[in-house]
From TrEMBL:
This is Dihydrolipoamide dehydrogenase. Binds 1 FAD per subunit. FAD binds at K70, T158, G159, S160, D325. It comes from the Bacteria. Its cofactor is FAD. Residues 25-339 form the FAD/NAD(P)-binding domain. Belongs to the class-I pyridine nucleotide-disulfide oxidoreductase family. Gene3D superfamilies: 3.30.390.30, FAD/NAD(P)-binding domain (3.50.50.60). Residues 1-20 are annotated as: Disordered. Disulfide bonds join C61-C66. Keywords: Disulfide bond, FAD, Flavoprotein, NAD, NADP, Nucleotide-binding, Oxidoreductase, Redox-active center.
């Protein structure tokens, strides 16, 4: 079979022939997290669904994002454990990384999860899957090489790709992105990373633990969207492991010479030149909108993605919805899944959910992890001023953390007049622990709900209960309470 430029098998006999015309209840462009969830939900409701995907089923998350990165981080964690084991009375030597075996672990992880996102599974659900590039031909029709489908509703779920900054010389070197870093032929001797966001910091720690020298160049502060104090705890942990972090430095020039790649990084103290063997660009992501012929579909878009309302419906074409990264509301796999839920609720059940109905969690999977839900302390103070209260509890007072020797970090709850508006946790397992706060916020529960349960001992999640309890400490143990108890003691 012939292949087109994207490597997708062409439809036999399609050359020179007009596309077959058909109708559907729902058309989805993109088989990433949001698109697959939307297609599955609609199909299970008995609707006729057509799904277009020109690349790999599962999208960026499965093939070059969340899944391979967490598999790599897992391998790196074992390397770190070998180095740290002597502190616990277990002797081991400096770990030796078998890069081919690490890549095999990553591949196995992807292959194990892939059937859930496969063409076969979705066709089993009743979805018509077309592995071809799709584009609009008019406001309610999407076409590919073999078929043109008209539908009442069209969902754009094309995701995002690495944003490449306009640094002089960058285009002339063989830089890496998240799409290529996991299959690089050899373990980098010295990996230079442009960008100190979640992707950059996770990869920095992973490759450092596996044996690479690593330098991170970030024009702002690292993990700029996280709580600043918590981001500093995480960055200091990476520095202790040997990662060089040049924050508030801007890459101004890139070049390659004698098999090495070099970057000039400009900061307040002048310009530094860093030379390494590999360069990873992790300076953010941009929505994928090119090639969709959005103008033909009367779909407005900008640099953030498809212009949609909070209901995820296009502001210019009532037939079109957008979910996931391309909707411009945030770039998280779990957010894409929520977007698909909003679509199903609104389009098919006429319910009132919106993209912002629930507080959005975010986790950076460094060690220690940095987790956030709702507002950061800084965001809350900017919005609510002196109405903000902060209550916290540190991991160095948590018995499980002490027993494990992992006491870095704390749980911080952000309140507005006693009501939860956000939380930030930095520490081992923060991404799992933050879910307790997210559950309480999503269900509009009072802060007392985080104190009124029995937390098994010893667990790390107890820090949430202790942080919430600290807010009520004066009310429970202060002078008025002591006076009341003194009076009540006179009653038999």
């Amino acid at each position: 079979m012939k292949e087109d430029i994207a490597g997708i098998p062409a439809v036999p006999g399609s050359a020179g022939q007009p596309p077959e015309k058909r109708k559907a209840d729902l058309v989805v462009i993109g088989a990433g997290s949001g698109g697959l969830s939307a297609a599955a939900g609609a199909a299970m409701l008995g609707l006729d669904v057509v799904l277009f995907e020109k690349g790999e089923m599962g999208g960026d998350c499965l093939n070059s994002g969340c899944v391979p990165s967490k598999a790599l981080l897992s391998a790196a964690k074992y390397a770190a454990a070998a180095r740290e084991s002597s502190a616990y009375g277990v002797m081991s030597g400096e770990p030796v990384t078998d890069w081919e075996a690490v890549k095999a672990h990553i591949r196995k992880t992807i292959d194990t999860i892939a059937p859930v996102d496969s063409r076969e599974r979705f066709e089993g659900l009743g979805v018509t899957v077309i592995r071809e590039h799709a584009h609009f031909t008019n406001p309610n029709t999407v076409a590919s090489a073999s078929v043109a489908v008209s539908a009442k509703r069209i969902v754009i779920a094309t995701g995002s790709r690495a944003a490449i900054p306009p640094v002089p010389g960058l285009a002339d070197v063989n830089y890496l992105t998240n799409e290529t870093i996991f299959t690089v032929p050899s373990l980098p001797s010295h990996l230079i990373i442009l960008g100190g966001g979640p992707i950059g910091m996770e990869m920095a720690q992973a490759f450092r633990r596996l044996g690479s020298e690593v330098t991170v160049i970030e024009m702002d502060r690292v993990l700029a969207r996280a709580d600043q104090a918590h981001a500093e705890i995480a960055s200091e942990a990476l520095r202790k492991e040997g990662v060089s972090i040049l924050d508030r430095h801007r890459a101004v020039k890139v070049w390659k010479d004698a098999g090495k790649v070099s970057v000039d990084a400009e900061g307040e103290d002048g310009t530094k030149t860093i030379s390494g063997t590999h360069l990873l660009v992790a300076t953010g992501r941009k929505p994928v909108t090119d090639g969709l012929a959005l103008e033909a579909g009367d779909v407005d878009f900008d640099q953030h993605g498809i212009r949609v309302s909070d209901k995820l419906r296009s502001i210019s074409n009532k037939h079109v919805w957008a979910v996931g990264d391309v909707a411009g509301k945030g770039q998280f796999t779990h957010l894409a899944g929520w977007h698909a839920s909003v679509l199903v609720r609104r389009a098919f059940f006429k319910q009132g959910s919106t993209s912002s109905s629930l507080p959005l969690p975010a986790v950076t999977y460094t060690a220690p992890e940095v987790a956030q839900v709702g507002l950061t302390e800084h965001e809350a103070r900017e919005r609510f001023g002196d109405k903000v209260q902060v209550t916290r509890f540190a991991f160095d007072e948590n018995d499980r953390a002490i027993a494990e020797g992992k006491t870095e970090g704390e749980c911080k709850l952000i309140l507005k007049k006693g009501k939860l508006v956000g939380a930030s946790i930095v520490g081992e397992g923060a991404g799992d622990i933050i879910q307790l706060v997210g559950y309480a916020m999503s269900n509009k529960m009072k802060l007392t709900s985080l104190t009124n349960f029995i937390s098994p001992y010893p667990t790390r999640t107890e820090v949430v209960k202790r942080a919430a309890s600290a807010h009520f400490s004066d009310a429970v143990f202060g002078k008025p309470a002591r006076l009341l108890v003194s009076l009540l003691q006179r009653i038999l």
